[in-house]
Amino acid sequence: MVVTIVVVVATGNLAIGVVVGVILAMVLFARRVAHVIQAERMISPDGLAVRYNVRGPLFFGSSNDLVEQFSYGVDPVTVDVDLSQAQIWDASTVAVLDSVETKYRQHGATVTFHGLDERSQAMHERLSGRL
Known about the structure:
With 131 residues, this protein is of the alpha/beta class.
């Protein structure tokens, strides 16, 4: 709000002040939400599989954090990723999930994603392998 007022006073134009204020609010929101994802890693008792429970909004701002949550070279050959507590917000997340799958494949592991809500599942199916 302060930025909006300063820009309005400096430019004498309310529209410019509002646009600058809205853009600043969007950037601050994206920055705040980008680092709230969590991926809890649980290895099966026999050590042959690993399960990741992912929580939080998945979008362009959190994509880099998501990629870094997995232990590609250390995990067993069966990887299960539960996304029931996460939501895909944009295409960049689908690209990240494809990247995660590719990295595991390079280490000889297979990864399965499940638990997406209906909208996220439709987006994943539509865009997976095309980005």
